[in-house]
């Protein structure tokens, strides 16, 4: 009895879940039940009328059976398919990767009665499995990263013992396969370690260079934590750096560490160098701003107090650019508005216990993680040491006074970006003098410009200066400036002036901004974005009067051209 009850319950559930399927099943069952009766009745009826003799005849038994079977075949097949669809055939529906791309793709061919519910469950299961696999992969990648760091430290120690380095080479190769399997790229230090281990002559050279230091210390070659580098290990680390980056790495004063400070450990080494291609590995999020100024490389080291390494550190970044102009531009973009001057390099500033300066084609940042005065003193000391290595005597010389006459500065420092920067007037509340490499004021045709911000009681504005190769080039940009101002809705008025070749005022009252630009010799200069015309025009006339008749043009550096051998 229970079996019959369960059977009827199953039928009722089937009808409720899929009324259309239930209706089709009832119709097929009714057809199967009534067809034999219909054929039995029709078989006894003389409905067949032959042509010959015009005699009514009943169908033969064989004809009745054949017709019955053909008629019953359709509902029988339908019922068979519906019954079969209620059961799972593992041999038929098991996932075969050679047939379809996923379990979901194959399963959707044989959906159950509730199609939407089946799809939702399948999608949910796949998302859960993808999440689990992603977590497993992350754990595996993190584990390989930790193993990488441990192996790098071991690699540094192995370069002091020949037997250890011989045994390490196959291990490093095997680890490369593991890294490839998890999809983890090797950093430059790994590539360099592999190159050293695969080069017996170079490897033995490093071991021999480290041997005197190890012997003198009377200890094993295992690193014992951060310590000041003596000449032997310092040269050994330089030898492990790509040759093109060694000149930049030598600007790090690791062999002149002030008393009371140690060189910080950076995963088994004390020097890190980067090119423009992999700079993001060190300063991810900021690298693009350096690439805009044509950075070519960076060298990094950090320093910690001997007595209390956990108190903080002083981080030294030395950036090299393709020329002094780009270095000055990046320095200006990083300089805080209210920074204290630092008498190091061409120009420098102090920001709390951190310092930075520009010199030649280098921009140096020294960042302290503590506000203690000793960290600020260490940052200043490092700045002097690095400046002395860039250009002897530069550390103590400091910047020239900004009040020097413009004509004198132009004559004594021709083609020097720092001298060109000083040609910007000392006017009211001058602030943030800087070099901008491209898209100045949003104009794609205006690049390589020196500018500074000014303000008085009536208005604020920016003054700018751009020398070109000749007067024709400057004149072409002057005309383009006026055309663009007109297109932006400004009214352009030519002004009479004695101290410049041409001068024009661009007024746009709708937005309340005024420009006054002038052309003098090979130089385009003037005022941009003033909130009042009177102060802007008066400043522009004084600016034109102070400028020499001709200025040295800027170096035309092609970013597509090969970099010089000493670009790093």
- Quote the average pLDDT: 77
Global morphology: flat
Contiguous helical run count:
20
CATH architecture of the domain at 243-399: 3-Layer(aba) Sandwich
The helical percent reads 40-55%
Q: Given the helix and strand composition, which structural class is it?
A: alpha+beta
How many E strands?
Answer: 17
Oligomer: single chain
Low-confidence stretches: 213-230, 397-414, 558-568
CATH fold description of the domain at 243-399? Protein Transport Mog1p, Chain A
CATH class of the domain at 243-399: Alpha Beta
In what range is the share of β-strand residues?
Answer: 15-25%
Rg calculated over all Cα atoms: 42 Å
Written description of the protein model:
The chain is α+β, with helices and mostly antiparallel strands and 568 residues long. Among the domains are: 2-87, no CATH class; 243-399, Protein Transport Mog1p, Chain A; 406-546, Protein Transport Mog1p, Chain A. Helices cover 47% and strands 17% of the residues. The protein has helices at 2-17, 19-43, 61-84, 90-93, 103-107, 115-158, 162-182, 188-197, 200-217, 231-239, 246-249, 280-283, 287-291, 324-334, 373-390, 394-397, 406-412, 417-421, 471-487, 533-546, and strands at residues 48-49, 56-57, 261-263, 272-275, 295-305, 314-321, 340-341, 347-351, 354-359, 362-368, 431-436, 449-455, 460-467, 491-495, 502-508, 513-520, 523-530. The strands form 3 sheets. Strands 3, 4, 5, 6, 7, 8, 9 and 10 form an 8-stranded antiparallel β-sheet that branches. The protein has a 7-stranded antiparallel β-sheet with strand order 11-12-13-17-16-15-14, with helices on both faces. The longest helix is centred in the N-terminal third of the chain and has 44 residues, at 115-158. The protein is flat. The relative contact order is 0.05.
